[in-house]
Write a structure and sequence with these properties.
This protein is an alpha/beta fold. It is built from 14 helices and 19 strands. It binds ligand BES, manganese (II) ion and zinc ion. Manganese (II) ion binds next to loops.
């Protein structure tokens, strides 16, 4: 989708999008003689201008019959979030409508360059779709919209969009693509290839560890998960050096390209969803793309533990004891609790090699977090109140919402093992918390760390104002905003 900003409505054919605040009809004034009829049409359809609501009409626009899409912006002042909803709602309505160009007239809204640019971001995000495997799409189901032109934004909005928000869109798009792809296409090696190709020319430094390298480092936990699969494991490390010689912040992603559960196999019903068990890794690489794209003034490490969790003749067994890179041993009670095993070695690796100032991991780690928080919030677990507060602020600003979960000694005790330093599962109760306690055992003393369980957020069964149903790209905007708010000042 081409996103452009201009002072004036163009000549020629386009659909006109008019933002309307609640029951205030003044935005229709530019319609001239059609104003009254359009207002009456809205009234008769009980249009109340709620944010992200929309009504489509055809009206005489100064002598041309035109598709007029009225989109609500609510009754409060138009924030960046509402601006994104406006762009997203317009794009959703017009994407396959037959219209090629949408003109969103934001003249009356009094937006600053940032909010106006985010109208464009919302439109771009909502227009993203992945049709690679639809070989028989009917013409009328193919996107017709190719351009969104936003008029009436202040000078400098195009620049703001190009520099600040287009890179974020690019990052989210990469994450969504990786998460959408099935597991026969995206497995550890091809994940690395796809990401490397996407990051070409970005200025990111890329390092990849293969099995031999990880064996040498003693990553017995990660490799134990991978050993049942014919797909070799990989560790992918991305480095962005935009911040002089300050210590980097590290983002770590769970990249289980498919999670069958292994020998502790999952039920067939819904197992196909486990293609997106690499959503944490997807978020980390998407965020690195965004940060590099906007040349963030910060030092950032993005690291992904990539494995496929399969049953097989060589798969690890319940009861196996593995030695992690940290030297700690783990009794693998349940081979389906694999994400924490992957993260454990990734965490040790990033601490030994980069001495990060803080570590934030992203993982589709537990079904239990969906029981706790549904699909509204990702759960955040942390050993540091200041980090919790800063991540909370970035969550609110970015729309990637977080809810803090508790941790503590009594939960930690639940993963003690009779035969090894710990076991990889606790009881059913508090399953997300014991998972977080497990990861915490791999965080060195004094390192601020947060674990974000995104199992309820990586994929959505219904569309939102800024995302089609499917892969959400959750985490990219949170990371981008956190780096902007905390690391770049
Ligand atoms: N990848 C799953 C968690 C998951 C479940 C993500 C549903 C998204 C939707 C994870 O590896 C897993 O299997 N966790 C187990 C842990 C259990 C064995 C302690 C779970 O949540 O059931
Ligand atoms: Mn699992
Ligand atoms: Zn998993």
């Amino acid at each position: 989708m081409k996103i452009r900003f201009a002072d004036q409505r163009p000549e020629g054919e386009f659909a006109l999008v008019l933002p309307v605040a609640g029951n205030d009809r003044s935005a229709l004034a530019s319609m001239g003689t059609a104003q009254a009829a359009l207002g009456a049409a809205l009234d008769s359809q009980r249009f109340d201008g709620e944010a992200a609501s929309a009504q489509e009409n055809f009206a005489d626009d100064h002598g041309t019959m035109r598709r007029i899409l009225v989109v609500g912006t609510g009754t409060e002042s138009v924030t960046g979030e509402v601006a994104e909803k406006l762009g997203g709602t317009a794009a959703a309505k017009l994407l396959t409508s037959g219209v090629k160009t949408a003109v969103i007239d934001v003249s009356g809204l009094g937006l600053d360059t940032d909010a106006a640019a985010r109208v464009g971001l919302g439109a771009a995000l909502r227009s993203w779709r992945y049709d690679r495997y639809h070989t028989k799409l009917k013409d009328k189901h193919k996107p017709s919209l190719t351009e969104v032109l936003i008029v009436g934004a202040p000078a400098g909005t195009q620049k703001r969009y190009d520099e600040r928000w287009a890179p974020v869109y690019q990052g989210v798009a990469l994450t969504r693509e990786l998460v959408t792809e099935p597991a026969n296409i995206i497995y550890p090696e091809s994940f690395v290839e796809r990401v490397t190709a996407s990051l070409k020319g970005s200025g990111l430094e890329i390092e990849v560890l293969d099995r031999a390298a990880m064996e040498k480092l003693g990553m017995g936990a990660l490799l134990g998960v991978a050993q049942g699969s014919v797909r070799e494991a990989r560790m992918m490390v991305l480095k962005w050096n935009g911040g002089g010689d300050s210590r980097p912040i590290a983002f770590v992603g769970k990249g289980v390209t498919f999670d069958t559960g292994g020998i502790s196999i999952k039920p067939a019903q819904g197992m196909e969803a486990m293609k997106w068990d690499m959503g944490g890794a997807g978020a980390v690489v998407g965020a690195m793309k965004a940060l590099a794209g906007r040349k963030a003034k910060a030092n950032v490490i993005g690291i992904c533990g990539l494995v496929e969790n399969m049953p097989g003749g060589n798969a690890q067994r319940p009861g196996d004891v593995v030695t992690t890179m940290s030297g700690q041993t783990v009794e693998v009670i349940n081979t389906d609790a694999e994400g924490r095993l992957v993260l454990a070695d990734a965490l040790t690796y990033v601490q030994r090699n980069f001495k990060p100032s803080a570590i934030i991991d992203f993982a589709t780690l537990t079904g239990a977090i969906i029981i706790s928080l549904g699909h509204e919030y990702a759960g955040i677990f942390t050993n540091n109140d200041e980090l919790a507060q800063k991540l909370g602020s970035a969550a609110n600003a970015s729309g990637d919402k977080l809810w803090r979960m508790p941790m503590g000694e009594p939960f930690d005790r639940l993963i003690d093992s009779p035969i090894a330093d710990m076991k990889n599962v606790g009881p059913r109760e508090g399953g997300s918390i014991t998972a977080a306690q497990f990861i915490k055992r791999f965080v060195e003393k004094g390192t601020p760390w947060a674990h974000i369980d995104i199992a309820g957020k990586a994929w959505a069964d219904k569309a939102s104002a800024t995302a089609e149903k499917g892969a959400t790209g959750f985490g990219v905007r949170l990371i981008d905003e956190y780096v902007a708010e905390v690391c770049e000042r």
